[in-house]
Automatic annotation (TrEMBL):
InterPro entries: PD(D/E)XK_Endonuc, tRNA_endonuc-like_dom_sf
GO molecular function, one term: nucleic acid binding
Organism: Campylobacter cuniculorum DSM 23162 = LMG 24588
Name of the protein: PD(D/E)XK endonuclease domain-containing protein
Transmembrane segments: none
Entry superkingdom: Bacteria
Domain PD(D/E)XK endonuclease: residue ranges: 158-284
Amino acid sequence: MNLEMNLEQFVKKNIKAFNEKPSSFKNKQFNDTQIKDYLRRRFIEKCSDVKFKEKILKNFEKLDYKRNEITEIANKECLYKNDVVHFIEAQIFLDIFKKLDLQELKDKSLEYIKEVSNDKQFNFIKTKLAKILEKALFLASIDGFSTNLLHINSGVMTANAGDSAEFLFVARAILAGFNASSVDVRSSRYDAIVDYNSTLLRIQIKGISQGGIISFRDRDRGGQGIDYRHETNRGKRITSEDCDIYVAMDKQMGICYLIPMSFADTFDDEKCTKIKLEEIEQYKENWEVIKEVAESK
């Protein structure tokens, strides 16, 4: 490889390999954060042209709206596939929901709930349910909480997103009635403390996307000049020695999975890195876990 090759030339030559598996793409000259940031800037610049955006959407339509075909579009246009995915998703959300009347959708939802419910029970909660549905449907119409509106570079955004998951949990815990606060020491193995009846619980918090995979292992250290294969840079297993409760925070909707580490410790080293959300469904919004863990101490 020509050492004088600049980032633009490098990306054009390697875009297919990068889009195939960005997290595993290693290069001594440019790291994945530099590549993502360059591609993000390129995508934002190209999106200033309305015709370009229309072309992306028409090409996706020609590919019969198949998600696995987006990589083909990204490679052809020399773009990061995740940027294209997010753009297409946002446009389709807008396209679908601009045709819908959210008030009518709410009313139809209430009608369905009434059909499958006890009339007296339904009438008792109808007013409150209608208000909650109105808020929930609006949030659904915009694909959940807004993210990275200022196009912050990916390295900074990753760190900021981690902080946002921590703050979301602490806010949710306080709203639920618990005394909770963040831990400011970055080297700490836990991110927050919850005080339940004078018992202090250590909470580790990881942000996830809905449908994502939970890992009870830290990420490997990466970046320019770092040997990710060296043992000292490999992610460490998260166990009950590090924290009492592991919280997986869905950053899209603010949903919490509160997982006691006594449960997490039962997985072997291979399984612990790929836990599906359906496997921890019993801990979804299960705030009783805080009480149970505290009382077990």
